[in-house]
# Entry
Amino acid sequence: MSAPGYRRIAVAQLRRDLALVWARRGDALQPVLFALLAASLFPLALGAEPGKLAPLAAGIVWVCVLLAGVLGLDTLYRSDAEDGSLEQMLLSPAPLALVVAVRVLVHWLTTALPVILVAPLLAEMLQLERPLLPVLMLSLLLGTPLLSLVGAVVAALTVGLRRSGMLLPLLVMPLYVPILVFGAGSVAAAAQGLAYDGALVLLAGGGVLAAVLAPLAAAAALRIAHS
# Structure
């Protein structure tokens, strides 16, 4: 199959997945609402005194983004497995890794990106110093695709299980810890006047590596789960 053929398949899959998300647009708002509600609890619990929340703001935003992304992982392939679409994906002449890559892109666009767009509001609510906001936004833009890619592999491993709702977060959280450390750590380093570009480069490098390997690994896991 030629490159234009792959492009047409990817565009068609992207339109289909986005149309399905639009049909359930009420569910698509859940990550943003969750992030807003979770972030609003910290000022209530810790107090809103000036300077008390600022050192924790980047870490809080990152945790909210991470947990919001986990909400949608279980449904990444679940509906396809239940309505038979997964079998069609496996039997389709289109590369399964390409279909998975498009599905991961849709997951990022509908879960991580909306939360990133409201991240300045979360940062202001948590009293993050404004000069640190560009570093936080850059770390989120580099780190959240990596979260979606890693989560897609774990979700593919558990798609064959009937009750994977609790197992999936338990499996994916340890893999998310390094991403969380580098993402929030880059903002903490910038706040202390230290070099933070190393952490961002690691996030970018991890994202590129995962973009190549994660769809292949998720496709292999889906085939194993369906066999």
Q: What stands out?
A: The mean pLDDT is 85. The CA atoms of residues 3 and 9 lie 10 Å apart.
